[in-house]
Amino acid sequence: MKTLARLPHRLAALLVAGTLGSCAPATGVAAEEPAARNVIFINGDGMGAAHREAARLYHLGQGGRLAMDRLPYSGQLTTSPKDPVSEITDSAAGATAWATGRRTYNGAISVDTARRPLPTLGAQAKAAGRATGLVTTAQVTDASPAAFYANAVDRDAQDDIARQYLEASKPDVILGGGEDWWLPKGTPGAYPDKPAADRTEASRGTEGNLITRARSAGYQYVSTPAQLAAAGPGRLLGLFANEEMFQQRAEGRGDVYQPVVSLPTMTGKALDVLSADPDGFFLFVEEEAVDEFAHQNNARRVLQAMWQLDRTVAVARAYADTHPDTLVVVAGDHETGGLSVEAVDPKDESGAGTSAEDGPLPVKNTKLRFTMDWTTTEHTGQDVPVTAVGPQADRFTGKHPNTHVYDVLAPILTE
Ligand SMILES: [Zn+2]
Questions:
Q1: Looking at the domain assignment, is residue 365 inside a domain?
Q2: What's the CATH number where 153 sits?
Q3: 374 CA from centroid of ligand 1 (Å)
Q4: Could you give the residue ranges of the DSSP H alpha helices within 275-393?
Q5: Distance (Å, rounded) from C-alpha 360 to C-alpha 412?
Q6: How confident is the model over 27-53, as pLDDT tens digits?
Q7: Is 91 a catalytic residue?
């Protein structure tokens, strides 16, 4: 390698630029990194390193790179909760660590181990004058989004969480599933009770008609793709399913991943609305189907959901490319399924009995095949990858406890 001194000046400057990031090539001085004004935090629920790799091989092939893996900074997060009986986290404790910087028991929504409410990132960002929002393919009141905008000793209190959204944290954009928790028994809403796909779904809220209350509080309420597309500026509530926006089942047992509105589309709309705020915004985005179908050891649906998640990351990245004061972070709250990417070899099973193996699955653009091997239908304690781009994204390199997310985001969002 020629020493820098002997390289043509422009090439030397570019090499320096490469190492110093976005510096003006001629001067060699690093351009001032803009302060982060906006944060887009994306959760692939249940997504571990193997989920990323399986999606890469299946959708892009050996030479491909997912949008989430193209983000320039990467690290790992540990996910231990502070639970009296379990070392393995659930999504409630996982998201509480992100949203409050505190580890707590499984099932807790941003309360500490003594069940005391903790300040959340969503409420703090709002108090600092930012616009805030959440987008998910789960119920909008499910554990992960709820931890950023509510406090509850039990994650199942989804109607109370919805009430808190309207009365306390007031996110400007709320898009996803979960209509059943906003309406009282006997008021079916836009999505009928007891549908053929899942007879257990039905309106079950105990806080009255929260959709009517949301409208009186100034929210536009939408329930179809056309209404969402037509929605104007200002506060927006969109509920597109009774519960989750998919049917989480084992393969061939009524498993469906066909959200009424796709996650990339909901995210694009949320960005349109939130970016109108001159003070900046905080947006939480989640693909819940990775976790739910991993619980079913359903590889094909996991791969489908991973692709929608990666298209969503591409939407967020494109936004950050034109708004350099935007930090985008992509992580999983825990790994689900004990997934590994393996060769096609039925004899390679170790231990008694056989674990669920899905495949053979094609490696895109090759004749090669791989299998997705599951060791459990539950969450595991594996580290999860985190990738990021934008101001302060470099703080996600290295290995950290999941509470580190709060340590990086809170100073930015409360600024
Ligand atoms: Zn789960």
A1: no
A2: 3.40.720.10
A3: 14
A4: 289-295, 299-322
A5: 45
A6: 555 567 888 999 999 999 999 999 999
A7: yes
